[in-house]
């Protein structure tokens, strides 16, 4: 009899534990469903900071060994964030390179951030971008990604100085139209 009571007690405990775990899983599924629904509707979900917002403080090294920071950007600059293995990034990369090569400022008018912790996987992107833009290789949530609050790839924004601040002047940049440098 005590054996049956012991087995029943263990079965009840396992059932209660299963019930608690299932309640947690259901709660997480509801949160994820709500997040996905919000993303599909576009409510308050942006791939990066928006027009008129100030870029956060950052400092990083370019592949050429120069430091780049918020203070070193002194004119209108196109900033692109790309991630190896991202199909839309691979599709947009050639147009980004062509756009950068047509800028009056040359590579000084564009910064390309390749988000990868492995140089081997980033090599194709780095090779294509070199010479067309100032290239920075950084891990996920690196200094530039944080400063621009990047959540999706590719992300393309134009920034420029305004009253001592670096602000976003254009988002979702159309790479088919080359803008003339402001004087």
The major sheet is characterized as: 5 strands, mixed
How do the strands of the widest beta sheet line up side by side?
5-4-3-6-7
What would the principal axes of the Cα set say about the shape?
Answer: elongated
Structural class: alpha/beta
Q: In sequence order, what are the helices and strands, one letter per element?
A: HEEEHEHEHEE
Q: Average pLDDT, to the nearest integer?
A: 85
Q: Strand-residue fraction? A: 15-25%
Distance between the termini: 92 Å
Q: How many helical elements?
A: 4
Number of strands: 7
Low-confidence stretches: none
Helicity range of the residues?
Answer: 25-40%
* Alpha-carbon Rg, integer: 24 Å
Annotate the secondary structure layout.
Elements: H1 2-41, E1 59-61, E2 67-69, E3 77-82, H2 87-101, E4 110-115, H3 119-129, E5 134-138, H4 143-147, E6 155-162, E7 165-171
Molecular structure report:
The radius of gyration is 24 Å and the shape is elongated. It contains 4 helices and 7 strands, in the order H-E-E-E-H-E-H-E-H-E-E. The strands form 2 sheets. Strands 5-4-3-6-7 form a 5-stranded mixed sheet. The mean pLDDT is 85. With 183 residues, the chain is of the alpha/beta class. A hairpin with a 5-residue loop joins strand 1 and strand 2. It starts with a helix and ends in a 12-residue tail after the last strand.
Short description:
The protein has 183 residues and is of the alpha/beta class. It contains four helices and seven strands.
């Amino acid at each position: 009899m005590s054996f049956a009571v012991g087995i029943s007690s263990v079965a009840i405990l396992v059932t209660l534990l299963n019930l608690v775990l299932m309640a947690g899983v259901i709660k997480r599924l509801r949160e994820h469903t709500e997040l996905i629904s919000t993303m599909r509707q576009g409510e308050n979900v942006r791939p990066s900071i928006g027009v008129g917002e100030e870029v956060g403080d950052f400092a990083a090294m370019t592949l050429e060994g120069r430091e780049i920071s918020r203070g070193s950007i002194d004119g209108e600059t196109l900033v692109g964030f790309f991630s190896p293995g991202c199909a839309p990034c691979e599709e947009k990369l050639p147009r980004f390179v062509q756009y950068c090569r047509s800028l009056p400022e040359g590579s000084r008018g564009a910064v390309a951030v390749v988000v990868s912790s492995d140089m081997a996987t980033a090599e194709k992107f780095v090779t294509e971008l070199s010479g067309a833009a100032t290239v920075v290789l950084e891990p996920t949530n690196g200094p530039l990604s944080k400063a621009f609050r990047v959540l999706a790839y590719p992300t393309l924004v134009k920034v420029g100085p305004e009253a001592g601040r670096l602000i976003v002047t254009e988002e979702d940049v159309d790479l088919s139209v080359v803008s003339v440098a402001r004087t």
